[in-house]
Amino acid sequence: MLIRFVCLIFLVFSFAAPSFGQSGAGGDPKSLFDQLAKADFNEAEKLIGQIAATGDPRVVPALQAFVDGDLYFRKSDNLVFIAKAAGSNLELIDPLTGASAGEAPKSAVTKVRVNNNLRRVIRSAMGGLTLLSPDRAVRLQAADAVLRSPSPENLELVEAALAKETDDEVKARMEEARAVSLLSSDRSVDEKRAAIETIGNLGGRDAIGILRSVSGSIDESLKPDLDHAISSIESELQLWDMAQNVWYGLSLGSVLLLAAIGLAITFGVMGIINMAHGEMVMLGAYSTFVVQEAIRTNAPGLFDWSLAIALPVAFLVTGAVGFVIERGVIRFLYGRPLETLLATWGVSLILQQAIRSIFGPTNQEVGNPSWMSGSFALGGLTITWNRMWIVLFSLSIFVALLVVMKKSAYGLNMRAVTQNRRMASSMGIKTPWVDALTFALGSGIAGIAGVALSQIDNVSPNLGQSYIIDSFMVVVFGGVGNLWGTLVGALSLGVLNKFLEPSVGAVLGKILVLVLIILFIQKRPRGLFALKGRAVEA
User: Fold this and answer.
1) Which of 21, 104, 360, 462 measures 20 to 30 Å from 7, CA to CA?
2) Closest of 171, 50, 209, 192 to residue 121, by C-alpha
3) Structure confidence at residue 19 (pLDDT)
4) In percent, how much of the chain has pLDDT > 90?
5) Residue 246: which of 496, 474, 488 has the closest Cα?
6) How far apart are CA 287 and CA 67, in angstroms?
7) What pLDDT, in 10s, does the model give residues 155-201?
8) Cβ neighbours around 433 below 10 Å, total
9) Strands (E), 354-488
10) Rounded to the nearest 5 degrees, what angle is found at the Cα of 192, between the Cα atoms of 187 and 197?
11) Does residue 440 register a pLDDT over 80?
12) Closest CA to 269 of 393, 405, 132
C-alpha cells in the first residue's frame, strides 16, 4: 500500500513538473495579467515584476501592448486581453497564445491604466525577458534596455543570461546591466562595491544618474566608493565637454572658412569691401534648393547625389552673378572705398528682394542626403555626419585654392596683382580681367559655401547676413588676402566663440570677440599673416 502511494505521488509530481517549469518562480502569467484589471499603479508594478520572473517569453507581446495602451479587461469577468480595432468593435486576443477570443463592443471593455513610471518598469522587464534570445542584436538591445532602466527583479534573469553568453560585446554590456540592477537589490556589500566600480568604469551622465539615485538608500560603508566614482566620472566628463566645445568650435570655424575664403581673395586682390558677399552665399543655398526640387520631381532616386550636382551649379550661378556685378558696377568705383561699400550694399538689397519675389520670404526646405544624416559617438563626443562632412569639405576647398594660387598661371597673375598692381600691369598682366575673374572666383566659392550651409542652417533670403560680419572679422584677423591667415583666423574665432558662449551667452560672446580683434589689430594692423610686397608694404 505504501509503495502504491509513493508511486502515485511520484506520478503526480512527474506530470506537474512541466507546468511548474513553464511558469517559473513567478506563478501563472495568465492569472497575473488578469490581476492587472483591478490593480493600482503600485500593485501593477509588482505584478510586472512577477510576470517577468516567470521567464516566459510569450509575455513579451502582451507587455508591449501594455506599453502601447492596447491592453484591456472585459468588464463581465475581469479577464485581460490585447485589443485591436475591428470596425466599431474591438477584437480580443489572448495575451499569451495570441489566439482570437472574439469581438466585443468598446463599452464592454476598459483599458488597463498605465503611466510613464510603469512603462519604464515594463520596458525593463521586456529587456530582461529577451536577454536569452538567439539573435545577438536582440540580446544586445535587451542588455541596453536593462542598463537604461535597472530593476532588481531582472537581476536573476541577467545573471542567467550572462552565464550562457559567449559574445564578448554582449557579455560586457550584460555585466554593466547586472551592475546597475545589483545596486538596488539586497545583495552583499562586497558585490555592490564591485558594481559601483563597474559603473564608474562605464562612465557618462547615465552612470552618474544611476549612482546618485541609490546614494540615499545605499549602505553607509559604500558612500566613499560612491563619491569617488561620481567625482571620477565628473572629472572625465569635464574633459569630454572641453573636447566637445573644441569640436563645435572647429565645425563653426569650418563654416566661417567657407564663407570668408572667397571674401579674403576678393578683398586682397581688389581692395574693395563687398557687402554683397553674403548674398552670394544665399544664392548658392537657393541653387541647392532648386536642384533638389528638380531631382525630387524628375529623378527621386538621385537625391543622394543632389549635393554633388548642386556644387558646380552653385559655383557657376554665383560666379556668373559676381562677374556681372564686377563688370557692371564695381569696376567704375575702384579707388573709392566708401562708394564701393554703398554700391555693394545696394546690390545685396536688390538680390535679397529678388529672391523674396521669386521664392517668397519664408524658409525653403533643403534635405540632407542619407550619408549626411545622423551622428556617431567618438569616446565621449557626439559628432553629426553633416558637420563632419562640412569640415572635410571646407578643408578640401582650402587645399584646392592653394593649388590654384601656387601652381596655375591665373594664380600667379592674381598674386602679382595683389602684391603690386602697377608693376603687374606694366609686365603685361591685364589687371581689369584679373579683377573680374577674381571677383567671379570669390563669388563662386561663396556659392559653394551656400551649398554646405544649406545643410545646417535655414535657407532664407537673410541667410548671408548671418555670416557677413563674421567673415570680415576672419579676414581682418587672419590677414587680408592670405589663405593661411583665413584658415587660422576662422578656426581660432570658431573655437573662441564656442568657449565664450556657455559662460557669457552668444550675443555677448560675439561682442567680446569683436573687442579682442580690435585690440589685436591695434598691435598688428595687417593681421596674423601679413602679405609681402613693395606695394603692400608701402
Assistant:
1) 21
2) 50
3) 36
4) 9
5) 496
6) 46
7) 777 777 788 888 888 888 888 777 877 777 778 888 888 888 887 88
8) 11
9) 375-378, 381-384
10) 160
11) yes
12) 405
Distance of CA 220 to the CA centre of its chain: 40
Question: What are residue 74's DSSP bridge partners?
Answer: 109
Give the residue from 214, 153, 202, 150 showing the smallest Cα distance to 181: 150
What pLDDT shows up at residue 179?
81
Contact partners, residue 126, CB within 8 Å, separation at least 6: 60, 63, 64, 67, 142, 145
Q: Tally the residues of the chain.
A: 538
DSSP 459-491: BSTTTTHHHHHHHHHHHHHH-TT-HHHHHHHHH
Which DSSP symbol is given to 130? T
CA separation for the pair 532, 434 (Å, rounded)? 19
User: Using an 8 Å Cβ cutoff, are 380 and 240 in contact?
Assistant: yes
407-429 confidence digits (pLDDT tens): 888 888 877 877 777 888 888 88
Mean pLDDT of the chain: 80
Pairwise CA distance, residues 468 & 484, whole Å = 19
Percent of the chain with pLDDT over 70: 90
User: Under 8 Å CB-to-CB from 536, ≥6 apart: which residues?
Assistant: 418, 419, 420, 530
Q: Report which DSSP code applies to 374.
A: S
Q: In whole angstroms, what is the distance from residue 486 CA to residue 493 CA?
A: 10
* Confidence band for 219, pLDDT divided at 50, 70 and 90: confident
Amino acid at residue number 124: S
**Residues 366 and 284: beta-carbon distance below 8 Å:** no
Are residues 471 and 259 in contact, defined by beta-carbon separation less than 8 angstroms?
Answer: yes
Enter the DSSP assignment of 533. S
Residue with the three cell numbers 540580446: 139
Hey, CA dihedral for 300, 302, 307, 311, is it positive or negative?
negative
Q: Give 3's pLDDT tier (boundaries 50, 70, 90).
A: very low
* Cell 566628463, located at residue: 237
Query: What pLDDT score does 153 carry?
Result: 67
Grid coordinates belonging to 522: 591695434
Q: Which residues pair with 377 in a beta bridge?
A: 382
**Per-residue pLDDT, 143:** 77
All three cell numbers of 339:
562708394
**Is 321 within 8 Å of 287 (Cβ atoms)?**
no
- Longest CA–CA span in the chain (Å) reads 129
Please write the tens of the pLDDT for every residue from 481-493. Answer: 678 888 888 888 8
**Cβ distance 385 to 369 under 8 Å?**
no
Instruction: Report the phi/psi class of residue 263: left, alpha or beta, with left for phi > 0 and alpha for psi in -120 to 50.
Output: alpha
> pTM for this structure?
0.64
Residue 224 three-state SS:
helix
* Residues 139 and 133 sit within 8 Å (Cβ to Cβ): yes
